[in-house]
Model the fold of this input.
Amino acid sequence: MYKGRLLFYFRRIFMQRGWILLYEDGSVLRESEADWRTTNKKGISALRLRWHDRVWEIKGQERYIQFKSGSVTVGQTEPTIHSRCIGYLDNDGGGVVYRVEELTGRMKIETLESGKGYKYL
Done:
């Protein structure tokens, strides 16, 4: 039990994870610095997802997305994140998602089918 908690806190403190926005003017915005819902979505040159020492990047799109999947347990102060995702939506409402599992770092690429009602914020 102690070893598991120590590993959890080690990962939380030292392993950087999250999305990074790169703008055409050279500025950079990290997940730890902003809320996705209020970020400027114009002039984005790339969206990156970092998990520890690995980075995935998407370029050349107009409608970038990011989200997390997770769960909340009664009595927990914060939700548990199961995966972190970045991607984009195309003009038909479909798109592509890069999903990284939080515990293992396993990454997979998923396609989103058109007409399923995905929202762009």
Observations:
- The helical segments are 2-14.
- The chain has one domain: 17-112.
- The first helix runs from residue 2 to 14.
